[in-house]
Amino acid sequence: MPIYHQLGIVPKKRHTVSRQPNGNLYQEELVGTQGFSGMSSLVYHLHPPTRVKQKDKAYSVQPKIAIENGLDALSFKGFQISPEKDYMKSRKTLFVNHAMHIGLAAPQESTDYFYKNADADEMLFVHKGSGKVLTMYGELNFKYGDYIIIPRGTVYQIIFDTTDNRLLYVESFSPIFTPRRYRNDFGQLLEHSPFCERDIVRPSNLKTHDETGEFDIYIKKKGFMFPYVYANHPFDVAGWDGYHYPYIFSIFNFEPITGRIHLPPPIHQTFENSNFVICSFVPRLYDYHPDSIPAPYHHSNIDSDELLYYVDGDFMSRNNIEKGQITLHPGGIPHGPHPGAIERSIGKKETEELAVMIDPFNPLMITEEAMKIDVKDYYKSWLE
Q1: Which DSSP helix (H) or strand (E) runs through 189?
Q2: H or E segment and range at residue 251
Q3: For residue 87, which phi and psi values (nearest 5 degrees)?
Q4: Do residues 102 and 91 lie in contact, with contact meaning Cβ atoms separated by under 8 Å?
Q5: How confident is residue 315, by pLDDT bands cut at 50, 70 and 90?
Q6: pLDDT (tens digit per residue) in 338-372
Q7: Superfamily of the domain at 30-68+79-251
Q8: How far is residue 271 from each of residues 99, 123, 180, 281, 330, measured CA to CA in Å?
Q9: Helix (H) or strand (E) holding 325
Q10: pLDDT tens digits for 71-91?
């Protein structure tokens, strides 16, 4: 998200002498992606961020594929993912392609270790639960309905308020941005955007940890987890500034775009990159042409798969949908409202539905974890 932000102590000029009260130099670190041409931040540590004491044997966390090439419409009962105490063990990857992983998690306990995804930007959608994400950039307080965007390479901890937590997550192997059409040449969100900079929650409450010892950081890279032990606390940052940092956007701050007749899914778009888009379906007024049909028209997915994660409310185009359920309609075959949904929608004035849609531009493979929660014969659900 291209908004300049600054916390703590930073020198007047980049790459110049800046000393701590004890006379030691602050250890400057440039953090960013896309080489030296993407968004970045300059971070000022008390200690060098390179002090590794120990590294243990790496182990595979690569998901096992059940369906590599399929053309069935599928559905999955997301709340059947069993809760687990540990945050990382609770993450179950369900769908993968070369550009992204999509999964669900039901963690019960906060993490006493640190985690860094060195491959992917992470989007965590909070379906149930609340708490804090702790990073060297500061803290982010999260709650139901929040999208948490964590750029790759960010070391973080999650502190949960309760044991009942449900997360939808996306790991993106390229950066996650706000839609380009909503921004001007300088990155500012335009007047017709369904959200603005005031809706973006940036890190706050920067705490500098001047601690040495042994600090466990699990680093994910190329399908493997690398356990590292660092000699100093990773959040030993006295200050930072720049454009590269984690942030939160609430789905409840997405202002829906409506029209006289049914508008296509891009009006719901919230995030994008070159490989997928993420959309937010939120409570809104229906189309107001006197003869409008609020239900979506049948459409053919040719260029992308369509994955919908149902959060809350009554999703009028689907029958027998539960909270936490996922539908996957693959590219190559048409899909549309379930039987009766079109007639039911006529004359309706508004909807209270809440859902997250992910459209990958390359076909998704289905993992063994996903097939454990598969809804049998969903593809037949359009038969009357």
Answers
A1: none
A2: none
A3: -60, -50
A4: no
A5: confident
A6: 999 999 999 989 999 999 999 999 999 999 999 99
A7: Jelly Rolls (2.60.120.10)
A8: 15, 10, 9, 13, 20
A9: strand 325-329
A10: 999 999 999 999 999 999 999
Question: Which residue ranges make up each domain of the chain?
Answer: 30-68+79-251, 256-364
Record: fold of 256-364 = Jelly Rolls (2.60.120)
Asked if 30-68+79-251 and 256-364 have one fold, the answer is yes
Phi, psi of 13 (to 5 degrees): -125, 145
Cα 327 from Cα 320, distance rounded (Å): 12
Bridge partners of 189?
Answer: 183
Q: Quote the tokens at residue 214.
A: 């042994």
Q: Per residue in 15-69, pLDDT tens?
A: 999 999 999 999 999 999 888 888 999 999 999 999 999 999 999 999 999 999 9
Could you tell me how far CA 296 lies from the centroid of its own chain? 26
Cα 218 to the center of its chain, rounded Å: 19
Identify the burial level of 57 via C-beta atoms within 10 angstroms of its C-beta, where 0-12 means exposed, 13-18 middle and 19 or more buried: exposed
pTM over 0.85: yes
Residue where the block lists tokens 């982010």: 140
Which spans in the chain are helix H?
87-90, 341-345, 368-371
